[in-house]
Fold this sequence. Notes:
alpha+beta, globular, Uridine Diphospho-n-acetylenolpyruvylglucosamine Reductase, domain 2, 4 domains
Amino acid sequence: MNSLSDLLPGRVSFAPEDLLCYGFDASGFDVYPMAVVWAEDVLDVVKVMRYAYDHDIPIVPRGAGSGMTGGAVPSKGAIVLSTERMNRILEINRDDLTVLVEPGVVNGRMQRELERHGLFYPPDPSSLNFCTIGGNVAENAGGARALKYGVTRDYVLGLEAVLPDGRIITTGVRTAKGVVGYDLTRLLVGSEGTLAMITKIRLKVLPLPEAVITLLALFRNLEPAGESVQHIISEGIVPRALEFLDAETIRAVESYKSVGLPDDIEAMLLIEIDGAPSVIMRDAEKISTVCKKLGGEIIMAENELARMKLWEARRAISPALFHISPTKINEDIVVPRSRLADMLKRLKMLSESTGIRIVNFGHAGDGNIHVNLMVDRTKKKEYERAQKLVEEIFRITLELGGTISGEHGIGLTKQDYITMEIHPAELELMKKIKQTFDPKNLLNPGKIFP
Length: 450
């Protein structure tokens, strides 16, 4: 494979330690690739893609490897093409409210840079301090602020990408509107690296909100917390974040990164509103009234430090859960907001009837629940029971009008369940789209479709 090394001297590795490090993501799956290549610009990507196409070698795009469903896990004999060195913020345009970035830019770093210019990029996955914009686009990442502001798809104006045969394409516009031809940009967003390798991303940004208020609502019972979500929205208030944590999650976080939460509550809502100070103070009072009527206790973050401490605790949930169980099966179901309380009730019943510990948290405002089955993979019978329980959770989710994935994608972990939601005719169309972009099936093969 010397000819691959010659393409990008010093940026191709066959070393076992690199193959190990780039062979897994947050899903827990791992496969050794054939090689790891670090691209630094679009021409590097073109060279590698053409080489792989000519030699029928699979290519797996990789950002930070923080995905939860195995999207960045290589197939055997594949080249992992890392974008971590394509990490430049190329342009911040305050007049047009856009930013142009390479795919390896870390979400949190970009947000901090935009804030220095008085600008705001809403999508904020919990992994924002290490996940990349390219990965966010590939998975159509959401985050806590999706309730008010939407997800990654709503901010991608245009893309530069490389097709599996090495051709460069540009999609989308620089303008606020544009309806010329099919919308290839929205097709590529959420395609999990199976159609093209993204090399530049133009994003819409917003003016930075004037003020932010963060509230905690503590509940001694589970159901009133779920009901509060619907009542808050019914009051005509759309918070920028409305997060839910159940008792198991609260205990896990407190043991990992304590913020002083009481140990006798069944659920907690983390609520954040932004906008003009006078408006959000009025909304905060309305939210307090709603939660208190349903038995909630309200605490307001006193300053920016207190606010950041609360969000640090929220973003520490995933690592905290690994401290209480050697294995967790993580799903990110979504139900209509009006069915949130029903779903939480059903999950509690499933946990009690099966004896499997289920920990729930997530973006309650848009019905997105992260369901975590806490099991030990080394205990075969327990793990098999948990796997069967996943299918039952998906069945209930769909019965309530929901979807089996809100922001994590399908990847490897959910591909066996995709036909529960997608009908044969639609699935066939998707497969034909994949074939049109990637006739040799070389780009991130084996993902999404069972």
